[in-house]
Amino acid sequence: MGHDLVIVANRLPVDRVTDARGKAAWRRSPGGLVSAIEPVMRAHDGVWIGWPGGTGQRLKPLKIDGLDLVPLSMTADEIEEHYEGFSNGTLWPLYHDVVAKPEFHREWWDTYVKVNRRFAESAAELAAPNATVWVHDYQLQLVPQMLRELRPDLRIGFYLHIPFPPAELFQQLPWRRQILEGLLGADLIGFQLPGAAQNFIRLVRQRVGHKTHRDLVYLPDGRTVRAAAFPISIDAAGFEELANSPAVRDRADAIREALGNPKKIFLGIDRLDYTKGIYARLRAFGELISDGALTVDDAVFVQVAVPSRERVEHYRNLRDDIERLVGRLNGDLGRIGRPAISYLHTSYPREEMAALYRAADVMVVTPYRDGMNLVAKEYVACRTDEDGALVLSEFAGAADELRQAWLVNPYDMNGMKAALLEAYGAEPKELTRRMRAMRRQIAQHDVKAWADSFMTELTDVEHSHSKTVRP
Ligand code: GDG
Predict the structure, then answer these.
(1) Which of 161, 187, 210, 445 is labelled catalytic?
(2) How far is the CA of 271 from the centre of ligand 1 (A)?
(3) Interatomic CA distance for residues 87 and 107, integer angstroms
């Protein structure tokens, strides 16, 4: 018995919440991954294993909207050392070009191993003979190998949502070999970009000493592992439909009105994370106003900073820095009823996000490093009138596909200022030419295409036990 498909991810697609009367309940968490995986889950009698948020309590498997979910509980120490520690204090900065300094602590590593083992054991119990298991993201890189040891019959896929760094940086990790070997337990390892897959293959050759050829790794036991790019995407049609709905159109008009009908609205929406380059982009915009290139009647910058990892010190400091900057810019540049920056530290329902995308003339996405960046793609999907400008960092995975954006180097302040100004002043014809091409790209490469291509490759990959002919 068991399931033919097991999804293993750090988080479940639902959150444990407490309602107004203090009763615990489940709420579907919004987000791209859920809508991407849901059809695959339904088609394959799938089950999803993950942490439901919160601590302690042992929770039973549950079914929500027909989806089988298995919650794995975490203790407060495990959250501190596996999630906040090794995942977000070591791996996250290391994998994002060391934008912040990664911390290496042996206790964090020990807990990372322990939590990975628990996920692997749970997957091993739930999977039917010869089932497929799809493991997600940097919090669970040891699961493929642990799972293969427990269940050699399984077909195992792994997908990394964040960048995979070049060897020169990855090498810093005291547990580099264990991570590489952990991932090699999979039959197929998916990355956002081809460069990340190449970084991985090169490291495996240099550090573990396995033979490799193009995107394949040949293991001594005869198994072959494939590492390749599968750029993730969004439910483009779903966003388009939402953006076209009368309620969202009205709300977009209301947002414009509430901002005092400036000539143009600039918009940033990001998790409040140091990789996203929020500080630098607000500074660039502020300088355009203090230089006199723009005035507060011409433009307002709406920045939504979604609360994230608030217990991690680095994130608290970043919030203070950004909020101090916003206060200073508004104090120096704003007038009554006309702040330069409209800053919101909150999260919104999907409808409000779509209305913001619809209201914005210039979308500004300037991460120092980002696996993909779905916000950039969502903006494009919501621009059903084929207008609006996207200013996009070269260092976001999305820049590989959205070539018609105004591409910027977020470390180059003058370059960013020039791009913001150009995007602000672009002719309607130019905007349409660019937006039309980007919309075509997103429509053709949506999240369903992403999930399908990963699952197809995983099914096609030579199965673990079949002998492989070496080149
Ligand atoms: C990681 C990688 C990669 C944001 N605020 C609200 C909200 N969101 C939604 C957005 C978007 C998603 O969250 C954010 O995705 P991003 O791709 O922009 O960034 P990360 O969170 O860092 O995601 C990234 C991604 O994984 C997928 O592989 O692209 O590179 O870092 O969908 O719309 N949604 C709602 N309210 C909000 O306030 N409803």
Answers:
(1) 161
(2) 7
(3) 13
The average confidence (pLDDT) of the chain is 94
Gap between the Cα atoms of 36 and 233, Å rounded = 9
Question: Does the Cβ of 353 fall within 6 Å of ligand 1?
Answer: yes
Among the options 137, 187, 270, 370, which is catalytic?
A: 370
197 lines ligand 1 (CB under 6 A): no
In the chain, DSSP finds a helix count (H) and a strand count (E) of 17, 18
pLDDT at 3 over 60: yes
Could you tell me how many residues make up the chain? 471
- Distance (Å, whole) CA 454 – CA 36: 11
Q: What angle do CA 255, 356, 326 make, to 5 degrees?
A: 80
Known catalytic membership, residue 105 = no
Q: Hey, which residues does 211 pair with through a beta bridge?
A: 218
Helix runs in 364-412, H state only: 374-382
pLDDT digits (tens, 9 = 90+) for 196-243: 999 999 999 999 999 999 999 999 999 999 999 999 999 999 999 999
User: 408 forms bridges with which residues in the sheet?
Assistant: 393
pLDDT tens for each residue of 78-121: 999 999 999 999 999 999 999 999 999 999 999 999 999 999 99
Structure ipTM: 0.97
166 lines ligand 1 (CB under 6 A): no
Q: At what angle do helices 374-382 and 236-244 cross, to 10 degrees?
A: 50
The confidence score (pLDDT) of residue 31 equals 63
Cβ–ligand 1 contact at 351 (below 6 Å): no
Atom of ligand 1 nearest to the CA of 347: 38
From the CB of 137, is ligand 1 less than 6 Å away? no
Task: Confirm whether 370 is a catalytic residue.
Answer: yes
User: What is the C-alpha separation between 13 and 202, in angstroms, rounded?
Assistant: 34
Which residue has the least CA distance to atom 30 on ligand 1? 371
Q: What is the pLDDT of residue 15?
A: 80
* pTM for this predicted structure: 0.96
Burial of 163 (0-12, 13-18, 19+ CB in 10 A): buried
